[in-house]
Amino acid sequence: MPTPRGRIDKRQAILDAAITVFARRGYDQACVQEIADEARVAKPTVYNHLTDKATLFREAMTAAARTAIGRHLATLDRLTDPGDDLQPVLREVALDLLRCHCDERARAVRRLLSAEAARFPDLLSLVHGPSGHRVTEALADRLARLALAGRLRPADPSVAAEQLLALLTGPADLRWPLVAPPDDDLAGIADAAVDTFLRAYGVGTEKPGPHGAG
Amino acid sequence: MPTPRGRIDKRQAILDAAITVFARRGYDQACVQEIADEARVAKPTVYNHLTDKATLFREAMTAAARTAIGRHLATLDRLTDPGDDLQPVLREVALDLLRCHCDERARAVRRLLSAEAARFPDLLSLVHGPSGHRVTEALADRLARLALAGRLRPADPSVAAEQLLALLTGPADLRWPLVAPPDDDLAGIADAAVDTFLRAYGVGTEKPGPHGAG
DNA sequence: GTAAGACTGAACTGGCGAGTTCAGTAGCCA
DNA sequence: TGGCTACTGAACTCGCCAGTTCAGTCTTAC
After folding, report:
1. Which residues 32-71 of B have a C-beta within 8 angstroms of A?
2. How many CB atoms lie within 10 A of CB A176?
């Protein structure tokens, strides 16, 4: 294959390896040699593509955050036209959002972001759009449509979105601070979150599901 | 005062300084000399009281986490005997919990804990009791009493506690990832959280407050 | 007054890792 | 063939910091 390879896919391999190693060791403990080894590349090649350890970190984090947010937004698209029964769609979307949230790479990116926010303040804007958190705002858009269509109680869509996301991610992060939760647990958390959300924001026609009062 | 001083309060000063500097720089970037300076103490004194940088970190984190959790639990005690009107008490307690959560020191402890959990796995047990998260379980105890007294809808108290805490902390962490939120914002978040919580878990007699449907 | 012990400041060792240099190799194009 | 470019591996410099040593000081106890 006579393509001008090397250049492109080595850079990609380095960025992948960088996120892997940074996730494993943290920024300071990660040494560039280990990243080079993980990428099957010599150390000077790393410095050739990405001048610094700092730029290496920045680029790797940017790429990883972009894909993570992309997955979230793609999942949220499925709320655009829910069928006639809101609750099951909401449950499915909630579960998939939670899967994105608990994905190993996504967890690592969040952890590194919060750990290194002081040293790399610009990285915070990866996750924040002009008006707050990007995923939250996208969810707020969907909820606003649903409220306007009479499928949800009219309320501040940004608050509702924040709360639905909090109901999803809070319990998951609380119960599994280190590792990704098993999928059964995720489903339980997602169902409980949607249940509570619909009790608070649903209209009479939408039932909250067979949870709770037993 | 002919007490054998020096010993005790120097140790305390060192631990305080350690948390301050670790919060400012992170574990790796914090150097022992800076901690010694912050504590107005010579570097060998630090090593005299706390053998290692690692033990220094462990002890400082343990002390800080203990006080933070103590504040949370003290606040939760006020839910033991709420008056005849649940909603305002819940709002006050929620606001104070949120204040504890957003306290600068508490934020730093959480950030350091998640950043260094891989290197100091034992530190996680600071926050976790035998059955999950200690604050969550304490809140679950209160909610169980309230449910038994007919003041809340009967439901799994652990799930309810997780969700109430998530409704409080999630939006705060989302909106203010770096600094402590201003108190007005905290009050708004707490009221919205209690509102949503009572819509989902309240019984007919407890009104969710004048929020929402505007 | 004097001895024991906590503390200080400064200097030192040793290791580790970021970033560089360089001589050499492999693929590509004329 | 011969030159260009990307890459390799190894060795090297340099600064930083954990942890130690030590001679001297200050406090307290008897």
Report:
1. none
2. 16
Q: What are phi and psi of B140, to 5 degrees?
A: -60, -40
Judged against a pLDDT cut of 90, whether residue A143 lies above it is answered with yes
CB A164 within 8 A of CB A139: yes
Q: Which two tokens stand for residue A51?
A: 């001048």
**Contact between A169 and A98 (Cβ < 8 Å):** yes
Task: Kindly report, residue by residue over B172-207, the tens digit of the pLDDT.
Answer: 999 999 999 999 999 999 999 999 999 999 997 655
Which of A118, A133, A167 shows the shortest C-beta gap to B166? A167
CB B147 within 8 A of CB B157: yes
Q: Which stretch of A19-23, B38-42, B61-65, B128-132 has the lowest confidence by average pLDDT?
A: B128-132
* Chain A nearest C-alpha distance from B173 (Å): 10
Confidence of residue B211 (pLDDT cuts 50, 70, 90): very low
- Residue in B170, B178, B195 nearest the CB of A170: B170
- Structure tokens belonging to residue A112: 């590194």
> Strand pairing partners for B138?
none
DSSP B152: B
Q: How far is B91 from chain A (nearest CA, A)?
A: 16
Which residues are paired to B100 by β-bridges? Answer: none
pTM, rounded to two decimals:
0.92
Nucleotide nearest to B45 (CA to C1'): C7
CB contact under 8 A, A124 and B177: yes
d(C-alpha B131, C-alpha B148), whole Å:
21
Q: B136 near B165, Cβ under 8 Å? A: yes
Q: How many CB pairs under 8 A join A and B?
A: 127
